[in-house]
Amino acid sequence: MSTLKVGLVGLGIMGRNHARVLSHLDGVELLGIVDPVKPTDLYPSINFFELNELLAKKPDYCVISAPTGFHKDIANQILDAGVNCLIEKPVSLDLDSAFEIKKIADKNSLVVGVGHIERYNSAVKQLRQRLMNGDLGNIYQISTRRQGPFPSRISDVGVVRDLGTHDIDLTMWLTNSKFKSVSAHATKRSEREFEDLVSVTGRLKNEVIVNMLVNWLSPLKERNLLVTGEKGAFVVDTLSSNLTYFSNGNFQVTQSELSHFVGVSQGDVISYAFEKPEPLLVEHQNFRDHLLGKQSEIVTLEEGIETVRVSDMILESARTESDIKF
Question: Which residue ranges in the chain fall short of pLDDT 50?
Answer without folding.
Answer: 264
